[in-house]
Amino acid sequence: MSDDSDAEPQRSVPTRRRSPGGAPTIYDIAELTGVNPSTVSRALGKPGRVSAKTEAKIRAAAAQLNFRVNPMARALPTGRTHTLALIVADITNPLFFRLVRGAELAATGAGYALVIAESQESGDAEADVIEQIMPSVDGIVLATTRLSPERIAEIASRKPLVVVNREVVGVTAVVPGVERGTQALVSHLYEMGHRSIAYLSGPVTSWMSERRWTIILEAAEALGIAAVEIGPASPTLSGGREALRRVIASRATAVVAFNDLMAMGLMQAAAEAAVVVPDELSVAGFDDIFGSELISPALTTVRAPLVEMGQRAVVGVLAAVSSEDDAVSEDMPALTTELIVRGSTGHAPGGPFSS
Amino acid sequence: MSDDSDAEPQRSVPTRRRSPGGAPTIYDIAELTGVNPSTVSRALGKPGRVSAKTEAKIRAAAAQLNFRVNPMARALPTGRTHTLALIVADITNPLFFRLVRGAELAATGAGYALVIAESQESGDAEADVIEQIMPSVDGIVLATTRLSPERIAEIASRKPLVVVNREVVGVTAVVPGVERGTQALVSHLYEMGHRSIAYLSGPVTSWMSERRWTIILEAAEALGIAAVEIGPASPTLSGGREALRRVIASRATAVVAFNDLMAMGLMQAAAEAAVVVPDELSVAGFDDIFGSELISPALTTVRAPLVEMGQRAVVGVLAAVSSEDDAVSEDMPALTTELIVRGSTGHAPGGPFSS
DNA sequence: CTGAAAGCGCTTACAG
DNA sequence: CTGAAAGCGCTTACAG
């Protein structure tokens, strides 16, 4: 009686998909193994919640079907997307490469995907980008400079957030100790005979630029030498280039730029203006980005542990994500900075060692 | 009778959330405006499907509640995540900065998020990463070198995919025309008196490395000069450094590296070995990455339009995503490469112009 | 240990 | 133009 036109309506078995998207679901596995979908879910989730035998069957079926849990479907009931956002100001700034790599490593290692978004050095864009990405992620690493502390605190109240290279009250921060490297830099310049140092600052909104200047100022005061702040300027090659004139006018014999990019711009402009580095002007930067070693003379810089900073920022976010506890206590050893002396700094002109 | 212990059980009104996550939902808007949630969904989706009046009310309420559609929830019924993946081999290779920026621009401009994943120059990792990210994205841009054409074609059969800097039958590719810049480079070297050129190749699996070598070989043959391939080598600074010995041994007077990073490594090693560039050895690379201009002497290179390539790759994926049509026809003007002559190439030693 | 049910927040035929 | 319902693929109390 295999008659298709049987009067009796076929019992409507709720044949769950084999979805058009093609991807197998837990229903396929359930069908294949003869268990309930919820059992499949349990077996594939935390182990030990299902008999070893059933679990083995289910895992085998999952493997056979090449099953992957649908992250979207999982995110809905759990509220967990297993995705983190890293917001940077400018993707093309080499500073971010190592930071991104560190964050990537830590995120991937924990089974999280990392969405990288760029705020294009604009405060409004920054806020928009964050607002837009927020619902898709479990937490955020913020490595930008334009947002106000109030906005940041507000975002932190909504999602786990870690800021990099700045401090905001009540928000977890990953900031290397700048003192060590920076003081070493000023001492180094002092020993080379410099008695007047210019600091070329970055964006006004940059907490880190402010911080670096403060330390330079204090170190200069302690040594009894002159220090002057020039800027603010764009934290880019051109920001550095455009500042050369003011640096020269300051009569400082050494200039420390907010970052390596600016320092390099300064050196390029100096070369074009036939100002010899370091004989006539010593130049130093911060971060030790790719290229610092390549430029000629190679750039003296205060190196930051960027890869580790990226990793740590992600670890911090993840800790907040899982503990759901707002109180994120940090017990990790302090991150610090280190002076790398290269050819761009030398004896002060007119001093006892000058040629 | 406001007695809590009222015997009559309270009618369980299905009070829809005001979710713990805090984010407002379309149910909140529906409640606030007195319409059905489905109407809210329609009003906020494609316009014109709801009366202007209702839509206005709904939009006002949405704005008031600061509503953002939950991308996960939307992805489930639609299958669209509004997220794209960009897979790169090595995030710290400056080559990718401009590519990433272009991709970012195009994606963000289209309302898509971009997930960046790194495959760490390993074929297995590459496959894993892709497999893992697949369910979360609507399409993929692949800028890696390790995957076999078969694997790539297989992936392309499952999701919209665009490959960058390589060609795979049946898969949309964004590849700049290498001929122009490369031929110009060989001509330039020829005119400088070079009669023997070495090509330092990248990974064996690199389609683009092969392609560049082919063109150099053909150009050299056409000019009647010698060309030799050295390698394969790692597409990194150290890959370049380690190859110097073999380059010298080849007696070629000019070396063209697979990419700028390798060319720079070669120059660093040359400097350490007191081999003067370009007087004793001319060096050139590909891509014109950040740093090429900074190294001394500055690097002669064949520049690729990386930002535009990134944009175009995303546009290509998006086209496939929306047309759902496998036949992606490309009508865009060809992308091309351009020779940038800088200081690292000069007259061949021993030639009529040599010092 | 396992099944049945409800729900995550949205979309989309299906009626009207 | 709008409402009611079903469903996307998963998770997780609730029973047993």
TrEMBL record, chains A, B:
Keywords: DNA-binding, Transcription, Transcription regulation. One of its GO terms (molecular function) is DNA binding. Pfam families: LacI, Peripla_BP_3. Residues 1-24 are annotated as: Disordered. Residues 24-78 form the HTH lacI-type domain. PROSITE patterns: HTH_LACI_2. CDD domains: HTH_LacI, PBP1_LacI_sugar_binding-like. InterPro entries: HTH_LacI, LacI/GalR-like_sensor, Lambda_DNA-bd_dom_sf, Peripla_BP_I. Coiled coil: none annotated. This is LacI family DNA-binding transcriptional regulator.
